[in-house]
Specification:
four-stranded parallel β-sheet, alpha/beta, Urease, subunit C, domain 1, TIM Barrel, 9 helices, five-stranded mixed β-sheet, 298 residues
Length: 298
């Protein structure tokens, strides 16, 4: 089947067509021609305003809940949803039941998804059962296909254990993924701590709960010369710390959720529970700073 896309914005930094609007012909699921005004015959012609094309998207922190919580999501249903949304590569969290903390569970995910159109990469747990007490068998999991290591929804709190994990994965060029949140600070909070939380009478989660552990982990990377990715970054100060660490040459990267780019704590004035997320939506200044971070590549 041939598909002709008319006047689409091409977004691909690696392409000479990046940022330009062209027609695009797709033949047998492959892009065969790009040009200004293509007149090739096609089975389907799509001509709608505002269309854009890009390489497949990547989600580095997806919770597919399989095995153990299949009533919420399965590897198959998650992959189908990802494909429908334009994602071609997914990193799945280890917060399953049992926890993905050994090579058998990594191999299970890899074998179950080998024939899927979306590439599924399991993330192995840093600690056994994600309990934050003993390191898991990360080397074995890496050899079985684990793409990276994280305790996922239960970030490692112990600095002593985390430094050991950084040293461990350095031996085989592995990467840790951490959600920067000190769970002992603002544990009962339900939104960002600030003027809005005070007005609403709701307990808040202060920015320092994120920034303090993020700074700690940057110091540990500086000491170990290992690799670390922060996901769910939500504050201006966190972004500044990461920006300076990258300028220093530390092997640190970060990612932000889409909703932190478009919503802030002021949007919670209507008590909209759809906006009750983790980490919480921060101030408008934080939101705008995160947008700047996308633009400057931080």
């Amino acid at each position: 089947m041939n598909i002709l896309l008319k006047q689409v914005l091409i977004t691909d930094p690696n392409s000479p067509f990046n940022g330009k609007i062209f027609d695009m012909l797709i033949e047998s699921n492959k892009i065969s021609k790009i040009g200004g005004k293509l007149t090739d015959k096609a089975d389907i012609i799509i001509d709608e305003p505002g269309m854009a094309v890009s390489p497949g998207w990547v989600d580095v922190f997806a919770h597919f809940c399989d095995p153990g919580y299949e009533f919420k999501e399965t590897l198959q249903s998650g992959a189908e949803a990802a494909a429908a949304g334009g994602y071609t590569r997914i990193f799945t969290l280890p917060n399953t039941k049992p926890v993905t903390d050994n090579k058998s569970l990594v191999e299970y995910a890899a074998k179950q998804t080998a024939h899927y159109p979306v590439h599924i990469h399991p993330i192995g747990a840093i600690t056994q059962k994600t309990e934050g007490k003993e390191l898991a068998e990360m080397y074995d999991m890496r050899n079985s296909g684990a793409i990276a290591f994280s305790d996922g929804l239960k970030p490692v709190q112990s600095p002593g254990l985390f430094i050991k994990a950084l040293q461990y994965v350095k031996a085989f060029n592995g990467v840790l993924i951490q959600v920067p949140i000190d769970q002992s600070i603002g544990a009962s909070g339900v939104m960002n701590e600030g003027v809005v939380s005070t007005r609403l009478g709701l307990p808040g989660i202060p920015s320092i709960a994120e920034e303090s552990i993020l700074k700690r982990d940057i110091d540990l990377v500086r000491y170990t010369h290992s690799q670390l990715h922060f996901t769910g970054v939500s504050t201006l100060q966190s972004l500044n710390l990461i920006r300076e660490a990258k300028k220093e040459g530390l092997q640190i990267t970060c990612s932000v959720t889409p909703y932190h780019l478009f919503f802030c704590d002021e949007d919670l004035l209507t008590y909209d529970t759809y906006l009750k997320v983790n980490p919480p939506l921060r101030s408008k200044a934080d939101m705008l700073a995160l947008r700047d971070g996308i633009i400057d590549g931080t």
